[in-house]
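Entry 14. Structure prediction run on the chain below.
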Amino acid sequence: MGLFSWLFGEKESERSVDPIEYKGFLIYSEPKSEGGQYRISGRICKETDGEPKIHHFIRSDILPSESAASELMVNKARMYIDQMGDKMFD
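Output returned:
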């Protein structure tokens, strides 16, 4: 991390994440590292009328592995989509 990145709080370089399509939504799992564990985090996206909509998805769940956090995030995002649908963008 360079001096200016540290001073101005630039984010760590983000990895490219392949989305998972579910019922017309794209789920991007992006677990956040916290103290050697991983918090469930990511984005749910959908294009509506040519306009991209993004819902940031962060949960209190913390798991010991990145893969477990990623898998649980996708499962929770699917449930959230089933419950909320397009209302999540209101």
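The chain is about 30% helix and 40% strand.
Filed with the rest of this week's runs.
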